[in-house]
Batch of 2 targets.
Target 1
Amino acid sequence: MTKNILVTGGAGYIGSHTALQLLQGGYNVVVVDNLVNSSEIALHRVKQLASDFSNNLSYIKADIRDKEALDKIFSSTKFDAVIHFAGLKAVGESVEKPLLYYNNNLTGTINLLEVMSDHGCKMLVFSSSATVYGWPKEVPCTEEFPLSAANPYGRTKYFIEEICRDVQRSDGEWKIILLRYFNPVGAHPSGDIGEDPLGIPNNLMPYVQQVAVGRRPHLTVYGTDYNTKDGTGVRDYIHVVDLADGHIAALNKLFDTDLGCEVYNLGTGKGTTVLEMVTAFEKASGKKIPLVMAGRRPGDAEVVYASTEKAKRELNWKAKYGIEEMCRDQWNWASKNPYGYNSANDEE
Ligand code: NAD
Ligand code: UD1
């Protein structure tokens, strides 16, 4: 029997890539998204890319804080599992508007868990983040490391992880997988779907991409005095298609094995500096990225990369792509869609 998967936040960057992978894997997918940080065009593109499977995708515009709406969705379809991406993710905004973040991310998740429980759907994959490792004392980060959070966004991830652990402890019917993403970058190789942040990008690669297409004059490099090979920060960049595959592996684990609440890192296990990433992107795009060197960004860690052993061992998953493919596909998406899903006229 074809399995029904509810994907919250499925119009977003990671959600749209995962929805496509699910469709191509033969799942029925229902996306719930309020489009606060995304465009419905992404889902139209997912449908086109899914070709023969396109009829297995449906979309409902709803806010996960709206419990009645969620209840209606669960009443009309019996879901086998939920992949929960919906959430706000801008660190700076979370510092300015903590209540918005607690309301959206925590209330939304609590609603979702309640409605899932009411309808007897107790399998969940949740988008956590490497941000819960804070400034790690050593690398690679293993799943057993102590958790911390430096800002309200990070705390929502940490709190939701704890809520999931409590819910599963209270009711052994639940099976929950918490996925800690490292730094997702790149786009689907078609160049038809990718990351399209609203306003000024916070993260490195969306910013680099906007410099490359002429929307921003230069990249500001935050910190040149870190204890790393070239003084710039080190992160574990992971191709978004590999990340999407990690969700299929997590679903298989939920369906095929007994487990309670488990956590897995999704990263490549390799660290790359800001300057190495810029050089790789310049090579892939043939564009020069002008740089302005600046001081450290508050809250940034020096070196963060994943231990990938647990995901390899227990999910049978590992990343396939390196930074060349990440930059190639990022540029393919950027050059085909310099203003994201909107036309140039809609730009701020
Ligand atoms: P995104 O903003 O592109 O996608 C999130 C989606 O959730 C958006 O489409 C948005 O419209 C939707 N949404 C937000 N609040 C909602 C609500 N109340 N009701 C319904 N829909 C809502 O972000 P993304 O990069 O695809 O991230 C997906 C998830 O992964 C988020 O939870 C994020 O915190 C987490 N994550 C992302 C990264 C990253 O670097 N992109 C890293 C670690 C974790
Ligand atoms: C940031 C968030 C983290 C979140 C993650 C994914 C902070 C403090 N941390 O992490 O909570 O989970 O994004 O959404 O915001 N850089 C520049 N110039 C830029 C942008 C970034 O030099 O314009 C550097 C950063 O200093 C860092 C690296 O690039 O060394 C990666 O930055 P970014 O893409 O923002 O990811 P994180 O810092 O890992």
Note: Residues 344-348 have pLDDT under 50 and may be disordered.
Target 2
Amino acid sequence: MGLTIAQKIIKEHLLKGEMVAGSEIALRIDQTLTQDATGTMAYLEFETMGIDRVRTERSVAYIDHNTLQSGFENADDHRFIQSIAKKYGIYFSRPGNGICHQVHLERFGIPGKTLIGSDSHTPTGGGIGMLAFGAGGLDVAVAMGGGAYYITMPKMIKVNLTGKLRPFVTAKDVSLEILRILSVKGGVGYIIEWGGEGIKSLSVPERATITNMGTELGATTSIFPSDEITKAFLEAEGRGEVWKPLESDADAEYDRVIDIDLSTLEPLIAKPHSPDNIAKVSDLKGTKVDQVCIGSCTNSSLLDMLKVAALLRGKTISPDVSLSISPGSKQVLAMLADCGALSDILASGARVLECACGPCIGMGFSPNSAGVSLRTFNRNFEGRSGTADGKVYLVSPETAVAAAITGYITDPTLLGEMPTVEMPEQFKIDDSAIIAPATPDEAKELEVLRGPNIKKFPDAKPQENELSAELVLKVEDNITTDHIMPAGAKILPYRSNIPYLSQFCFGVCDKTFPERALAAGQSIIVGGSNYGQGSSREHAALVPLYLGVRAVITKSFARIHIANLINAGIMPLTFENPADYDKLEQGDRLTIKNIYEGMESGKMTLIDETKGLELPLVCSFTERQIAILKAGSLLAYTKEENA
Ligand code: MIC
Ligand code: SF4
């Protein structure tokens, strides 16, 4: 049987396990990336492993999330990351150089290599044929130390594209269309391979928009072939030598095939508060808009920005709309400046923000009260913008410009003719904002600079054989890590200060949770399906651990979060009968006995002492995961192994 693109890369990197869907495999990781919001913790974890230099082919530390320095915290964390990067062999991308995924694609990504990043949108690299995964910081730390990355061997979906996108219909609309078809949990357990004749008309930045948003499907990752278009992109980046062709075998088998005719698509929009809440832009026409944000790792490439500039040329934005533009990288911004497109953007009345995540993670530019914000981003979870009652819609850059000009949700096809945008043959290459690490000899003398905001992370709590605890919080389906551990300008600076961060845990759902959890001592959380979707932040496990959470019982989990729970020593369990979820109530006293036996057999019984019920639970832990839970954390387990 032939192989898919992902299976070929997995085969080349397989350290342990069999390539059978559903079984655990260990992969050799060629490259890692971190960003600053997850990086501080990842490097603190890396440090405790006692390794003197990273063992990957390339590791890069980006500063792109916590760029608002409204106090010493972020600046201190940046100095910490810069100093640790220099010492341990990691390239450092300075604040202002751009968003990790955009810069990685431009300067470091290589077709056929494996990449893990402490950010859920790391699959953006699939746009040039990398096998790229989002992961918790601790998994990235282990990979930097030369350890394997463990995943469940995914099933394969092929999306076959035919036809060509019509003017004003974009790669973003393709992403929204697949979210309409599959929903935010439809990709869980799958790698999505994009292929078919239709991909020949999609450039690398467009492909990267699509692989970036594969994260919103819950997919393990997404990937495109590496072809002549990939080659041209890498050559334009002055890196043609790293290109190699990659395609699936003609007889490769897929678990599901989805056909999309690009020529039939029209501009789409994701309504609040989920990326799969899809409508046609034309169906929402006339909705008044307060704010428009263009940028994020989904839509901040030079191609996106040149289109935006061309559409804004000679126009003034509506006086009722505030428009922000955040180019994805210094390369993008410099080229916009050189060709004059930046002037068109400025003349329209837009506010140009720095090359960073910015509004996407609530780092400034929050909408007004109950404001309608149209964003070219990938997530519109409740409260994520920083305004609790803000209404965020996700759209393409073209639809965003149409709303900025008219002040209303507007079908961009009504803007007239789409201006032709030519991509340069050569990108402007200036790596001066990427600082190379020290040589091993120099590194010995270097000191790591730590600020007072860095606090100790919670101690590992080995899983005991019996657990008796209060059901301290019961939540619904599709709980995101933004619900569990919110971000935003006010909270993000404390990512290395778990005690402080804990006050905000589950703040979107129930502000009393932290206090109640601490009072309960140890506790259990119950959730619906797809619990923990969204970001890779391991803080969504570390903070509950700090607050005493020992187990989370749900209908199903999202991939990165379940790994983070296990890594933090919190036991993830699922209901054998999803309807049992309804029988439990917040405040019930729950007991689980014979946990060690249950971890092996995959079956446990949940006793609800309050209601006098016995409910069957299931779990599926590998020997390694059982050992991690018994050791209390992946870090404790790794230390035991090394000893
Ligand atoms: C996000 O988009 O939610 C983030 C912020 O980039 C996160 C990482 C984080 O929480 O720091 C992600 O996607 O993993
Ligand atoms: Fe940054 Fe937003 Fe991309 Fe996350 S999704 S990496 S916050 S731009």
Note: Residues 507 and 567 are 23 Å apart (CA to CA).
